[in-house]
Write the structure tokens for this entry.
Amino acid sequence: MAIDFCTVGPNVPHGDALPFTHIVFLMMENRSFDSYFSKLPSYGVTDVDVADDSVTNPEPGPPVTYVSRYHETRYCIVNTAHDWGPVHFQYDSGNMDGFVVTNDPGGERAMGYFDQYDLPFYYWAAGTFAMSDRHFSSLLGPTWPNRFFFYGATSWGRTMTPDTPPLNETKIVNEMSDAGRTWKIYRDGTLSFGVAFGPQYAGTAMSNFFADVASDSLPDLSILDPSFSGSGQDDEHPPTNMQRGQQLSASIVAALMSHPAVWKKTVFIQTYDEHGGYYDHVPPPAACVPDGYSPPDYAFDRLGVRVPMFVVSPFAKKGYVSHLVTDHTSITRFIENRFDLPAMTARDANAWPMLDLFDFENPPFATPPTGMPNATPYPAEVDWCANNPPGTGLP
């Protein structure tokens, strides 16, 4: 049941006082902030909290050894552990030292990171527009419950992937419909994540998103899903080549920027459902318990591991890095704040809706910026992934 109160304050702009019409949201898979963005300072983004190359995680012995972070040169890597139990062990009461051992054998791969050569579009987007270095997944666990938190500001007690959600609980798309607002789910593959809630959330092909941009007919809320499986998989979930997801993201941004009538009234938000087992050095903070659901072992009283999040919009502050704590329910709250929707749980009711990332009075990018780098996957890495098993251990 929705909660009929707002906690962002009476002087915070909301509803039609905000000068944009469309929210476009893309959630990718399984990458931590440090695994993607720890080299932002060398790219020129210095006001950002990143892991030092000297940090380590232990590899149990005997004898005990320590694994340092390293530049990952393989674009297809064996999947890393990110289930409810292992992630709590990775967190280890804030020590952030369980990433290698929970990924053994070959657990060193959890300490790898990419840089601006590997992720040129993402580094450009993060450095040009606005981003956060304090955006966390919503719980210390895997994909499904974290995506549930975006949709419903709770996982309804669920902690596993896959799991069966209660089909009749209120979700952000139901709130949109109840308020007379439009929404669509666009999927790049054969399935949307939303179909877990029922066939009415199966979505439509991603090609229709590009058509709707071209015809200036986007809904109020667009939820974009990458392809989660098959030969076209581009969700960035290991062992998938992460540059394929980067290419999808760049194509979305390029479409928005190339249609001025759409660009001037749109906010694009991208994040990752959870860290996927990759190292991050920032201990997740305590979190507001969303509701009365309680798992038998741990509680929903702490955010998950930090993940990348950036916004692309004419209203995004230029080169801004937010240090305010947010999680996926902050994106939910941002949607609720724009369309005057009630909160669904105590979590989104108390979530900061990310408004510090924007300048609505003087849009910094009323004219889209130039210089967006090519995001086509590197042919040599595509060939490597096609002709080698996914990497594990150290390169």
In short: The mean pLDDT is 95. The longest helix spans residues 242-257.
